[in-house]
Specification:
It contains three helices and 14 strands. The protein is mainly beta. The chain has a single domain, classed as Sandwich (Jelly Rolls). The strands form three sheets. Strands 1-2-10-7-12-5 form a six-stranded antiparallel β-sheet, with no helix packed on it. Strands 6, 8, 9, 11, 13 and 14 form a six-stranded mixed β-sheet that branches. A hairpin with a 6-residue loop joins strand 1 (2-5) and strand 2 (12-15). The longest helix has 8 residues, at 32-39.
Amino acid sequence: MQWEKTPLAGLFVITPPVYGDERGNFSETYRADVLAPVVGADIRFIQDNQSHSKHKGTLRGLHFQRAPFAQTKLVRCVTGALYDVAVDLRDGSPTFGQWFGIELSAQNAKQLFIPSGFGHGFLTLTDDVIIAYKVDAPYHKESEGTLRWDDPDVGVVWPMEIKVVSEKDKQGLSLAQKIRQ
């Protein structure tokens, strides 16, 4: 597996090898023994999540869970293509409020390792996108939060027009509101 550091500490882009032949391809998408030395911890993923977005231009996020239910995630795109974004929301982090974005697709096989304390969201670049991700903590409704996808203090630059956003995501907090919580 190929690992790339990002400008945000603890956030990595992972590209597993894909082996193909006339039948199709095969890829090992996760190995705990390979992940642990790179991220500096033995992450125990306990749940796999998957979502399907029907239409190009659908935005989901930027979601987070507050401690002690914050989640580490390993995100990949199974079908189609998406622009995946992580925002550093860790108290005391030198990169607090900064974001990183990358295209994940079924074609490029890239994955994003997102440590706990980050907000996460994505914009679909094609129709019929399936995203799958592992988490190390269960969903906890009372700890969930949403950072506004268009907060000028964060300044995420989305690569195309956003056409579909849920009412819940439209009501997300600004970074300033998140700080005051």
